[in-house]
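so im writing up the methods section and need the DUF4327 domain-containing protein record in one place, dumping it here so i stop losing it
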Amino acid sequence: MQDTMTNQQVAHPMMKFQRQVQSLVNSKVVKSHDPLWKIALLFGNDWAYWRRELEEFDFTTQDPIEELLAVESWEE
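--- predicted struct ---
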């Protein structure tokens, strides 16, 4: 019997973050043209982690949220 977990791909953590940010835009908490730093307070203690992740993908806190949302693949 084959383990069903081996057939499923694990989503990149940035995909989850991207969905959370998209939800914030959809609910009008932030606008897509706002800079990424505007979401820092919303992520509280987790922001330091997400900021490092964003920087690894060459994002800055000044980049607009829409650039984050435009990413289609989070390959490292």
